[in-house]
């Protein structure tokens, strides 16, 4: 039986890859950024890819393009909700109703309400359910016909992803995928890759690092960061961390850059993709910064597959 899904705010398509690995058929990916949309099209050639602002996308257009689908997935931008953003709105409800980027969550809800899939799954940072936001989301989903929603907080490392990552998956079905009970370290995740090169695997070109940063990186101990930046409330966040080879990697963000545990250089895009559980044949297109961003802003495919298998049980 055909089990179809489409993907809003699709990025390069890590979330979609997990669903395809579980046996679903992806029919549409939508993103307003050309570079990740190109990556989505390259990695999901059977699906239609739209470069479109979801806030301007008509549900009738989607229905005309793909017909009925069982599942809608999506990852609205997290910047309005993450504590790493020093400019996020102080009032949590303003992040949802005032911030124009934060309001994209409401457009996900709008489309889900119009098309009435059997299952929907919306991914974001835990800040999405901070304070009164959880009740607000319950009201919004109830208004479009989904009176029961679940706020599933899952850790990627529980599903064989080699990096820490805590995210909330809002859905109309409970998501309690069985854990893999295995910790994959940085060393294990990077094992078998050749030195950085311009041939194979893709996205494994050596990143440029100024000599002065190489010298400073050489002095770092495993787990230490070269720089820190301020997030919401003045909290400091580390970046350019020298990875500990025997531990999980820290959370991979779009802005994350990591130093190799044994070499005084930054990880390649391919190595960071390994830390998120991507297979080596998954291609990231666009500029280098965009490629890192596509990796860091995605749902790790092994976690996405575990979620998809739960959705399949329900269906």
How many H/I helices? 11
CATH architecture of the largest domain: 3-Layer(aba) Sandwich
Number of domains: 2
SSE-based structural type: alpha/beta
Q: Give the integer mean of the pLDDT values.
A: 94
Low-confidence stretches: none
**Largest beta sheet, briefly?**
7 strands, mixed
Report the top-level CATH class of the largest domain: Alpha Beta
**Strand order in the largest sheet:** 3-2-1-4-5-7-6
Report the sheet-strand fraction: 15-25%
| Secondary structure tally: strands | 10
For the CA atoms, what is the radius of gyration? Answer: 19 Å
CATH homologous superfamily heading of the largest domain: Vaccinia Virus protein VP39
**N-to-C SSE string, H for helix and E for strand:** EHEHEHEHHEHEEHHEEEHHH
Shape: globular
Helix fraction, binned, reads 25-40%
Family: Belongs to the class I-like SAM-binding methyltransferase superfamily. C5-methyltransferase family.
Protein name: DNA (cytosine-5-)-methyltransferase
Enzyme class: transferase
Keywords: Methyltransferase, S-adenosyl-L-methionine, Transferase
